[in-house]
UniProtKB/TrEMBL annotation:
The keyword Iron-sulfur does not apply. Pfam families: MMPL (PF03176). The lineage of its organism: Bacteria, Bacillati, Actinomycetota, Actinomycetes, Kitasatosporales. It is a multi-pass membrane protein. This is MMPL family transporter. Residues 238-327 form the SSD domain. Keywords: Cell membrane, Membrane, Transmembrane, Transmembrane helix.
Length: 740
């Protein structure tokens, strides 16, 4: 592998204009095709296998006029003084209802006075707006018309707010990505001490994301990729694109500093750092593609699209990066030597990474225990993780959705913000549906956790009825989730001689949360298991991959613990802008596992391959740990700081979900890079000694020799010699490694 990549690096360096032209042509071609491609289809929000989805499908057949999966908005009216039933106020509300009915794509608007949707004190009323299409298909001018009508209806006497999925704004700008790129640029300049060297990883990362996003746009219609599929691809593409180019450029400059010419430096950089990039990329692809096991179509699409973008980032790192290094020539410069102090009669002080590595290998037990205890303490809150899919109650109080939610809660009760839809299907078609629905309604109405039950509505075929159930608690509360499970108790269906299904947005959220929770352990086992096998081939060791997997679990648990403490318990909430602590968004644990696992394995491969390379080339186990830090610690730290900055930039968002994701990923990367990889890894390797690099003989015969440490690229290319890096015979290095 390393030999092939070394040749590829030298070819790309020599044929730099051709390689750069090919990538430019690919970008332009993708842009042209994307411009001609049909629009991406709406996102597939179906949840196969859930009861809520089954009920939605049944409603679509039995009550086509309900348009159960269509977009909706709830427009709330609140009289500042007096009541909404006062003649002047009532007239203004009725005019607004008529204006809402004239909006584009609107199929029905309820009159709050006809449906008795007026609070007991008469201060608040609401109208329900239903659209002919789903929220994903709702056109922007329909949203704009709704917003304009609501704003025009508001006055000093009447407050008018709107909530629901029809009010949701489409994907916003990319201010967070821009902030992250700005911080990345600063970190890269500090790391390289050169604007040109710092700009190259940014350029290639943006190019890779561009190619990947355009390819997704081209394939959207043929493959049915949803409109928001590119969101994860852009985030991950920027992260790994910067990382991969950073490591290749850093290794190239280090080889120039050792006296190699440009071609050989590029070949050696791609053969060694490029090998690490390839296998790090494979672990990320495994983690992202593994999202398909969750069984949620939209999540599967996002994972596969992001995996494709990672593949593009890897290809750019091993082809375009050496080509651009060739175009830059000597201007890219070798790595700058460390500045010596004013006293010239003593050696320069070792780098901070070297000093830290020497400290760790001298006291591995204390460092290992200290780091593990620290992560364990931070991870403790994760045991109380409570997940859910937040709605309008999680939005900032400055938004109309949140204000509408609060008005409904104050005027009617929190449960009115998320009513449940109960579908009753008679056992025998055409007979008993009405009576069965009445029986179900009577049993539900007597519950303490139910605020109201609407009258049953019979389908045209007469075999299915639907009724609305208003919980007593808020939609995101555990009490409402318990109510959903209680209504699905088979005893209720048996007592009514009918099939009873519970759906609605609240029930769907509960099903999604449960499905994500159930999929977390299988997903974790899949990605960790496959990566474990891959890392055995990379490091030709069992203990090193095992250590990597255990360290990753510590990082994820610590990250989840920090998220629970801040966003669920409210600790330091004022610092991070958390105004209403509550359940953690259900997708967060699975999402964190996938993203953090990929990045954690990046740092593991980049750092440990340099240690293994030093060990193969003759250094002792402890010296190889120090050597690995000497060559990689600065770059790994820079890469981690870049990623933390990119993710932390989302803390500036007003959306609680984005804040949670940004904080969680930044915290997990911080713990993994600085505590696990830079602290626990050297401590464990120092304790294991030579045992860390051993592979059982029977397994050694089965595992292919991938040569990731770069033995063969290190040979002289002029005479086909047999020496590695510093002159050690390859056979001796290989024999020592495998215990021969």
């Amino acid at each position: 592998m390393a030999t092939f990549l070394s040749r590829l690096g030298r070819f790309s360096f020599r044929r730099r204009r051709l390689v750069a032209l090919l990538w430019t042509a690919l970008l332009v071609g993708a842009a042209v095709l994307a411009g001609r491609a049909p629009a991406a289809p709406p996102n597939d929000f179906s949840m196969p296998g859930t009861e809520a989805q089954q009920a939605y499908d049944l409603l679509g057949k039995s009550f086509p006029d309900l348009n159960a999966d269509g977009a909706g908005a709830r427009v709330v009216f609140h009289a500042e003084d007096g009541k909404v039933t006062d003649p002047g106020t009532r007239g203004a509300i009725e005019d607004t209802v008529r204006a809402l009915g004239d909006g584009p794509q609107v199929v029905r608007v309820t009159d709050p006075f006809a449906t008795r949707s007026v609070s007991k004190d008469g201060s608040t009323a609401y109208a329900q707006v239903s659209y002919a299409v789903s929220a994903a298909e709702l056109e922007e001018h329909s949203r704009a018309a709704l917003q304009e009508t609501v704003e025009q209806a508001a006055s000093s006497e009447l407050s008018v707010e709107a909530g629901g999925n029809a009010v949701e704004a489409m994907a916003g700008g990319h201010s967070s990505e821009a902030v992250g790129l700005g911080v990345a640029a600063v970190v890269l300049v500090i790391t390289f001490g050169s604007l040109l060297a710092a700009g190259l990883p940014l350029l290639t990362a943006v190019l890779g994301v561009g190619v990947g996003a355009l390819a997704i746009r081209v394939l959207a219609a043929p493959l049915g990729l949803g409109a928001t599929t590119t969101s994860l691809a852009v985030m991950i593409g920027l992260a790994v694109g910067i990382d991969y180019a950073l490591f290749v450029v850093s290794r190239h400059r280090a080889e120039l500093a050792r006296g190699r010419d440009g071609v050989e430096a590029a070949g050696h950089a791609v053969g060694t750092a490029g090998s690490a990039v390839v296998f790090a990329g494979l672990t990320v692809v495994v983690a992202l593609a593994g999202l398909s096991v969750v069984g949620i179509p939209m999540l599967t699409q996002m994972g596969l699209a992001a995996a494709g973008t990672v593949v593009v980032a890897v290809l750019i790192a091993v082809t375009l990066v050496p080509a651009l290094l060739g175009l830059c020539g000597r201007r890219i410069g070798p790595a700058r030597p460390r500045r010596r102090g004013r006293t010239t009669d003593r050696a320069a002080r070792p780098a901070m990474g070297v000093r830290w590595a020497r400290f760790v290998v001298r006291r591995p037990v204390a460092v290992l225990l200290g780091g593990t205890v620290l992560l364990g303490v931070v991870a403790l809150p994760a045991a109380s993780l409570d997940t859910g899919l937040p709605g309008d109650d999680s939005k900032p109080v400055s938004t109309t959705q949140r204000r509408a939610y609060d008005l409904i809660s104050d005027g009617f009760g929190p449960g009115y913000n998320g009513p449940l839809t109960v579908v009753v299907q008679a056992d025998e078609s055409g007979r008993g549906a009405t009576q069965a629905a009445k029986n179900v309604a009577g049993r539900i109405d007597g519950r303490d956790d139910v605020s109201a039950v609407g009258p049953p509505r019979l389908s045209a075929s007469g075999d299915t009825a639907v009724l609305s159930v208003v919980p007593d608690a808020s939609p995101s509360s555990t009490e409402t989730a318990d109510l959903v499970h209680a209504l699905r108790d088979p005893a209720l269906a048996r007592a009514s001689d009918a099939r009873v299904l519970v759906t609605g947005t609240t029930a769907m959220n509960a099903d999604v949360s449960q499905k994500l929770s159930d999929a977390l352990l299988p997903y974790l086992a899949l990605v960790v298991g496959l990566a474990f096998l891959l890392l055995i081939a990379v490091f030709r060791s069992v203990l090193v991959p095992l250590k990597a997997a255990l360290g990753f679990l510590l990082s994820v648990l610590a990250g989840l613990g920090a998220v629970v403490a801040v966003f669920q318990w409210g600790w330091l909430g004022s610092v991070f802008g958390v105004t209403d602590p509550g359940p953690i968004v259900s997708i967060m644990p699975v999402f964190m596992v996938g993203v953090v696992f990929g990045l954690a394995m990046d740092y593991e491969v980049f750092l440990v391959t340099r240690m293994r390379e030093a060990y193969v080339h003759g250094q002792s186990p402890k010296d190889s740990v120090v050597s690995g830090f000497e060559h990689s610690a600065r770059v790994v730290t820079a890469a981690a700081v870049v990623m933390i900055s990119v993710f932390a930039a989302f803390l500036g968002s007003e959306e609680q979900i984005l804040k949670t994701i940004g904080f969680g990923l930044a915290a997990a990367v911080l713990f993994d890079a600085l505590v696990v990889r830079m602290t626990l890894v050297p401590a464990v390797l120092a304790l294991l000694g030579r045992r860390a690099w051993r592979l059982p003989r029977w397994l050694d015969r089965l595992v292919p020799d991938l040569d990731i440490e770069g033995e063969r690229p290190g040979r002289s290319s002029h005479g086909g010699g047999t020496e590695v890096g510093d002159g050690e015979p390859v056979a001796a290095a290989s024999g020592r490694l495998h215990g021969n």
